[in-house]
Structure formats: structure tokens, C-alpha cells
Amino acid sequence: MIPPAEHVHWLFATGFLLLGLCLFARAVVGEEVWGRRRWRAYLWPSLLFGLGVLMWPVMVFFTNSAIHMMAHGSWAQTMMLAGAAELGLVRGKLKSPLWRLAVPLALFASGAALLVHEQNGWFFARSAFLHHALGWWAIAGAAVAVVSALRPRSPVWSSGVALVLVVVAVFLYCDRDVAPVFGHLSPLAGERHR
Questions:
Q1: Residue 56 maps to a domain
Q2: pLDDT digit of tens for each residue in the chain (194 aa)?
Q3: What is the pTM of this model?
Q4: How many domains is the chain built from?
């Protein structure tokens, strides 16, 4: 039995919430204090890489079209790339600060994939609205992440990236397959849930 898509979205929302909270804690205390315990430096990049790995089964088992498979595959690849780049920077294996641009790339690719794979209009159903809102939010968040990558010691921009990820989690928690948005539900959307 395959669980509803909203359950998978809620599980990934928890992952993004943990990512955002880790980045926010790191921004508040500073990178030096955060790095005093070596395991904390590896925490959020490992979580990001793990979310990318977990996106592969979602792509295989929970997709119903080629465009959905491509979208989930691009999310998996870019999340794994961003997590691996950050792990390489923490470990000292990667020296160039340009590797920090992998996180904005992941956000931009995720936003673009969300917009491309949602084939319905904004007010078709709640899931369609959330896909559009998430897509544009991730693209805007990529701009914040670029500035944060260029100014890595700025607590304001680091907190901004954390806020982007927490809002992504909130959007994902709001997801339900067939539910009205702002009181509107397209008659073509199907049976209303609850």
C-alpha cells in the first residue's frame, strides 16, 4: 500500500525544518562556536545529503509521470551535490569557497523543477498552489543563498537561508492532495479530502 503523497511531503518537511533549525542555530552562535563540537559541523550537510538520497525512492515509488520523475531526480541530485560539497568544505577536502554555491544551485534547481512539474494553475487545488508558491519561494531563496555564500560570516544572510528552509517546511506541512485553496477547488481536481 502506497501512502498518500502528503505523508511523504510531511516527512520531507520535517527534514527541511531540521535543516533550517541547524542553520539558524549556527547563525546565532557563530560558525566558530558551532564548530567546537566536530559532529555539529557535519550535521546539516549530512542531513542535506541524506534528504537527497531519500528522494530517490520517492522518485521511483511515488511518481506517476516522466516529468515528475525528472523533477524528483533533479532534486535528489542537487541536494546530494549541495550536501556533498558542504561536507567536503567541512572536512577540508574542498578548498575553493565557490563550492558554497552548490546550495543556491540546489534551491534554484528545486524551484525550477517545482514550477515545471506542476501542470495545473495556481487555484486548481491546494497542492497546485503550494507547488507554485514553493517554486517561486525556492528561486527567491536561491538569491538569498548566493549572498550568504559570498558573505559566509554574515549572521543576517545565514539566518535568511535558515528562514527560507523553515518556510519550505511550512509549505510542505500545508500540503494535501485534493483540498481547496482560499475556498476554491477546481471541479476537475477530484474528490475533496476531509
A1: yes
A2: 566 777 888 899 999 999 999 999 999 998 889 888 989 999 999 999 999 999 999 888 877 778 888 888 898 999 999 999 999 999 999 999 999 999 999 999 999 988 888 877 777 777 788 889 999 999 999 999 999 999 988 889 999 999 999 999 999 898 766 666 656 665 655 566 55
A3: 0.86
A4: 1
Q: Which domain holds residue 132?
A: 5-173
Q: Is residue 186 part of a domain?
A: no
Instruction: Write the DSSP string, 125-189.
Output: -HHHHHHHHHHHHHHHHHHHHHHHHHSTT-HHHHHHHHHHHHHHHHHHHT--SS--BTTB--TTS
In a domain, 192, yes or no: no
Q: Is residue 147 in a domain?
A: yes
